[in-house]
Amino acid sequence: MASPTLITPTSTPKSLPPIKTKPTTISATLSPTTTVHQRRREFLSTTSSILTTTFLVHVAPAFAASDEEYVKETEEVISKLRTTITMDKNDPNVATAVAELRENSNSWVAKYRREKALLARTSFRDMYSALNAVSGHYISFGPTAPIPAKRRARILEEVEVAEKSLKRGR
Hints:
This protein has helices at 36-58, 67-85, 94-112, 116-119, 122-141, 149-168. Helices cover 62% and strands 0% of the residues.
């Protein structure tokens, strides 16, 4: 037995009475026939356009790193990377050198990966790849584990290509 409130194919739905809104007089410039929703929409659009233009004018553009700064910092990271991965495994300073390299590489990546102009550069791509390989090795095997010869050769090759690209402005 079906409930009388259920809609069945034979029953016809009852229409709801129309919602009546009373015009309120918020502003004398608006006609009394405009609804509250229209007034709210006008207010919000006006306010947002005023605020948007105000903030856009006063906000300074994001400071993009200069080319000289990128080249200088990349060369510093390259030299740090070369000295760190060529250190002898019995050297007592290996762990601190690896920690410094990871700190430098993390700050370099965090600073330059947001720069759209640098993402297409060969130097950035190769440097990022080399830093990723070194960081991944030390994360997986610890700061005192020596990098295998094959991996070290590939990393040094990527660093050399990145350095040549830097000198060419790429």
